[in-house]
Every structure is written in C-alpha cells, then in structure tokens.
Design brief:
The complex is a heterodimer of chains A (150) and B (478). Chain A has 150 residues and is an alpha+beta fold. Chain A has helices at 17-38, 82-97, 113-123, 142-149; strands at 2-10, 41-50, 66-75. Chain B has helices at 13-16, 34-46, 74-79, 84-87, 92-96, 101-107, 140-154, 244-258, 262-270, 321-325, 378-386, 462-477; strands at 23-31, 66-72, 130-136, 158-167, 233-242, 343-349, 364-371, 426-429, 440-443, 449-459. Classes of the chains: A alpha+beta (150), B alpha+beta (478).
Chain lengths: 150, 478
C-alpha cells in the first residue's frame, strides 16, 4: 500500500525561473539514482508551477508566484525513513531549498532532519484535507513488483 | 577526512566502552528537589563525599571497583531546568518518551508489553527522571556498599522508584541459551577494545553514537543549549523479560513442524547457534566454537565469489534476529545497516533457567541500547526491521530467479522482538524455488519476550553534567 507525497514549495519572490530549471535539470540524474537506491518510490516527478497564470504554467520570466512541486507515490513510513532519505537526497534538497520560502533555515538538511521532516509535513498537500486521497490499482510494493518481474 | 579526536574524559564511559563486569544495578529515580539533585550530580562528576565518580571513556588503571553512569529522561531534564524550546531541539523520540502511546505503538510495546503494565514505577514516564547505573565485578559486597552510599546521597533530592539488578551468566550467555555480546559496531575514534571480537563491517561514523560529530548521513546531531550537545548520547533503557519455558516449547513444537532439530530452529530464528557460531559459516551443525575472528562473519552477499552468497537466506534466514537487526551487506530499502547501528549494553537478570525444573520467575535482559538518534536507530530497528517484512530489496542469488528472490523469503516479525500476535505471526525458513514455492512458513506462535519497563535516556557529556548541575543550582539560587 503506497502513500502519496505532493510537496508544494513556494519559491522566494524574484527568483529566476531559468536558475531553478537549470538546478532541477542539474540534479535530476542524482535524484533518479537516489530514488532507485532508496527503493520505495514508485513514481516521482518534479514540476515548476506559476500560481499567477491561468493554467499554472510558468511563463518564462522572473516572477513572484512560482512553486516547486515534487510528487511521488512511495511505500512505507516516510518519517521512519527520513534520515535515509536525507542521506540519499539531502544534497538535492539543499540545492532546491535555497530557492524556497523558509528553505534557508533547513540547509543543510543533514543537520536539520527533524525540522526538514516538519517542513515536509507542513508542505505536503497529501497530508492535509481535502487532498489526502490516492487511487491505487494495486497494493504491491516497489520491491515486490521488481521481484515479480524477475 | 581524518578520524575525529574524541575527548574520552568528557564522554560517559558506557557509550564507548564495555565494562566487562558481572553485576549491574540500575536505579530509577524521580527528582524531588532540583537544587539537591544538582548538588548530587556535581558530587558524582567529581566523586566527592566517597561517591563513585561518573565513569568516562578514558581507560582507568587500575580498573575501578565500580563504574557509574548517569542519564536523564526528557522530564528529568525539565525538572533540572531545561526549557521547552531547548527540549524541542532534542531527538523527537526522546521528547515523546518511552511511555508515550505513539512510542509504544511504534516499538511494539502493546498488550502484555504496554507501558501501563510496566514495573518499578516505570509505567508513568513523567515521574521517571534519572537512570543511575552502576556496574561492578563479581563482588556483591561492593555493589551493596556503593548502593548504600548512593541511597544516602539520594535522600532528600531524589526518590528511588525502583532498582533493577543484572548478573552475567557464564560464557556471556543469555537465558535463552545463546552466547551474547558478540557483535558491536566499531565506532570511529572510540578507544580500542581490550578483548574485541572483530566486526566484519565498516567502522561507523562517530556521530552515530555521539552528538557533535559527523554522522553517516553527512550531518551532525546537536541539541540546545550547546553545552549539552557535543559528546552526549541517547539510549533506550529496556527491561525485557524472557519466557524461557515458552521459548523451549516454541522450539519443540515448531521444530517438529519444520522437520528439523530444536537446536537448528534455535539457530535459524537467531542467526547464530547457541554457542555463538554464525550460520553463514556453520550452516549444518553448531560444531565447536569458532575462533573469535570468525564469529562475526555474516557475509550475506559475497562479491568476490558470488556463488557463495546467501542472498536468499538459505543458510541464515533473512527473517532471523541477527539479519533483521543488522542486515550487513544484504540489500534493504532506504540506505544500509551502517546508518542504523546500535551499541548494546545489556546483561541478564533473574536466576538461571534449569530445563530439568522449568520455572517462571522473572528473568530476562536489562540495559541500554545506545545511539545518537533514538528515532533513526533504536526505533527504526524496532519498528521497521523487527516489526515489518517488506524492507528487503528484490535480489536473486547464485541460482537466479528460479531459485527464488529475497523478497519472498521473509515474513512476519522478529521472533524475539516482534509483537507476534498468534493471529499473524510468521517465520520463513527459505528453500530454493521460484517465488518461495518451497519455503516452510511457521505460523501462530506467541511472543516470548515481554517488555517490563523502559526509559528513553539522554547521557550528557561530563561537561554537560557540570552544566546541568550549575543550571539547576543557578535557577534555584536565582
């Protein structure tokens, strides 16, 4: 049985869209490798949204309403594995949090694991009504699926 | 990076050193007068008024007659004057405490193990402030004389809720008959162990056991105020009662079901034979005790010779106690075992069990599980690796997927430390075959270890103890 993560992180007003996009691109291979190593994440994607546009798509200019979104479905207890998560993707989050409102106080996340966990709880829309739902077509874990595919 | 230099004389000894003694007594105390408690802490740090000094990690020669260490619960630190914002910087599990309902659920202290059943005043964690522990060689007179001096010193400032004695059994055995105290992590920067059994794993970052040093995640655990941070540590104090007759019954009944000997099943649920030999080296019989440099040989994945890998747990089951609590180089989700190791400082209590005359007086293990993060080490081990079975990564062994996959070769919870409600208790004895088709799964057994008490403890550094003494003394004086 997986759980959803819908992490929505408002960006510091005036931050360059290009800089954020470049950072996301730079760290994507590291993030992908880390998620493979962690072994509990079914799917993950990062989005860059602009709350000031009608369709939430970023327009390409420096704005005041950007949001970095990380959306995943994962197995297990996120808080129990928070330290492992930080071990694997702490550097990626350090790079992203520099753009995020309230993020500077969490960097490096490896030194602020409890505060980082609290930040995720606060900013994970899936942990707050009315956004807690998740449809699942199956209940198998990532590792059970990989084993079945062997 | 060079290894960090640890000021051994600022670290409480039990964190980094095993004392190699036969007797221990753990006093459970409630602070009734903060000023008096502060004065007592100061005396203990200095060994004043004939009291034994707090033992440090600095080796002492000659060996002292009594080792003493001192730890505090969150409510104990509050009683000494720490503020709520300061306590909020401590490990989240430590803040919750051992008797908190969320903690109890997390670590499986439910039913007969629930905190409200605990003995010796431990049921109400808000009243448990201090765990003061003494260890002595096999001279009970020393234990009693030191206890008399300490009890006189407690008078007026601390109430003794209970005291819990421990006594080593011959050959470091525990009541279930296993030789214990074999595997301990090698902590980077710790003093060399005098009679160490070599660990077969990478040395672990200092910061996994002491605050203020780099940990395995590349960060550093710390608390506020800074005076309490560096060289401090945490521990879970646990009283674990062992139902030896029940365990022997389990072995007898389920060994017959599995078609193996009781001793083989004892080895399979533990990962070691009762003489300490690892199943990885002695898969078929206990044999004679192996040389010490082989006692921790649990190479589950043999990269040099993959044909020798025990990825599927055919020798040492993936669900065995030793493999759950320290998967070593076997693949698990998250990170790896190096990120979740603990130092074990526990000793048996109660009379030895005589199988010729089965009886049931209280007997078990009492002591500390030491770590720099109760959340990520003790609680992680308990809640994830002991009480779950889905943490194993998909992996095949020398025979490929037709011989099985690690994912299918574990079920249920740890036989020793799991909740093991008979409705859903399982233990898998793996056998070669696709998708675990030939595995033997034992079902319906009950837990044979019951939690009888617990405290989440903070071990301040020596300078931290002096700070606490001054804090309470200053607050009371101001």
């Amino acid at each position: 049985m997986a759980s959803p993560l819908t992490l929505l992180m408002p960006v510091i007003p005036g931050t360059s869209l290009t800089t954020i996009a470049a950072t996301l691109q730079q760290y994507q291979p590291q993030l992908d490798a880390a998620l493979t190593s962690i072994g509990t994440v079914h799917y993950a994607r990062t989005l860059l949204l602009d709350a000031s546009t009608a369709n939430l798509q970023p327009g390409g200019k420096t704005g005041d309403s950007y949001v970095i979104a990380i959306i995943t479905e994962y197995d297990g207890d996120f808080s129990a594995y928070i330290q492992d998560f930080v071990s694997q993707v702490g550097a990626v989050f350090d790079a992203l949090l520099q753009f995020v409102v309230g993020g500077a106080a969490l960097i490096p996340v490896a030194n602020n694991v409890q505060a980082f966990d609290a930040f995720i709880t606060l900013n994970d829309a899936s942990q707050h009504a009315p956004n807690t739902g998740l449809y699942q077509a199956y209940t198998a874990t990532v590792q059970q699926i990989l084993a079945a595919l062997e | 990076m060079t290894d960090p230099a640890i000021a051994y004389d600022d670290v409480q000894g039990t964190i980094l050193r095993g004392y190699r003694v036969d007797l221990a007594r753990h006093f459970i105390l409630r602070i009734t007068d903060a000023l008096g408690a502060a004065a007592l802490i100061a005396k203990l740090v200095d060994g004043a008024d004939g009291l034994p000094p707090v033992t440090t990690a600095q080796r002492m020669r000659p060996k002292p007659a009594c080792f003493l260490n001192l730890s505090f619960s969150a409510s104990g630190l509050a009683a000494l004057g720490l503020s709520s914002p300061q306590l909020a910087t401590f490990d989240a599990a430590f803040q919750r405490g051992a008797t908190n309902p969320s903690t109890a659920t997390t670590v499986g202290d439910v039913g007969a193990s629930a905190p409200d059943t605990w003995i010796g005043g431990l049921a109400d964690g808000t009243q448990v402030h201090v765990v003061l522990s003494i260890w002595v060689d096999d001279d009970r007179a020393v234990l009693e004389s030191v206890s008399t001096r300490l009890r006189a010193a407690f008078a007026g400032c601390m109430t003794e809720l209970s005291a819990h004695d421990a006594q080593a059994l011959p050959d470091n055995k525990i009541h279930f008959g296993y030789r214990d105290s074999i595997a301990q992590p090698t902590v980077i920067g710790a003093p060399p162990r005098k009679h160490a059994i070599p660990d077969d794993q990478p040395a672990v970052a200092t910061g996994e056991f002491l605050l203020g040093y780099p940990n395995e995640s590349g960060g550093t655990y710390s608390v506020q105020p800074a005076e309490l941070s560096t060289n401090a540590s945490y521990a879970a104090f646990r009283i674990l009662e062992q139902d030896v007759a029940g365990f022997e019954d389990f072995l007898r009944v389920y060994a017959a079901q599995a078609g193996i000997s009781s001793e083989m099943l004892a080895a399979k649920v533990c990962g070691r034979w009762r003489n300490g030999n690892p199943l990885e080296l002695m898969p078929d019989s206990a044999g004679s005790v192996l040389p010490v440099d082989q006692l921790n040989n649990f190479t589950y994945v043999n990269t040099a010779d993959p044909a020798q890998s025990d990825t599927l747990g055919l020798k040492c089951p993936i669900g065995s106690h030793i493999r759950r609590n320290n998967p070593r180089n076997a693949a698990v989700v998250g990170t790896d075992s190096t990120h979740h190791r603990i130092v074990r400082r526990a000793m048996p209590y109660g009379p030895p069990y005589d199988p010729a005359r089965p009886d049931t007086p209280p007997r078990g293990l009492v002591g500390f599980f030491i770590n720099a993060s109760i959340s990520n080490q003790f609680e992680f081990l308990t809640s994830q690796w002991n009480d779950q079975s889905d943490f194993v990564k998909s992996a095949t062994g020398p025979g490929g997927s037709s011989a099985g996959n690690a994912v299918y070769n574990i079920s249920g919870e740890d036989v020793f430390l799991g909740v093991n409600d008979p409705q859903d208790s399982f233990f898998t004895l793996p056998a070669p075959g696709a998708k675990g088709a030939n595995n033997t799964v034992l079902k319906g057994f009950t837990r044979t270890i019951t939690t009888r008490g617990g405290v989440y403890c903070f071990f301040p550094s020596i300078s931290g103890l002096r700070y606490l003494a001054g804090l309470a003394g200053g607050a009371a004086g101001g």
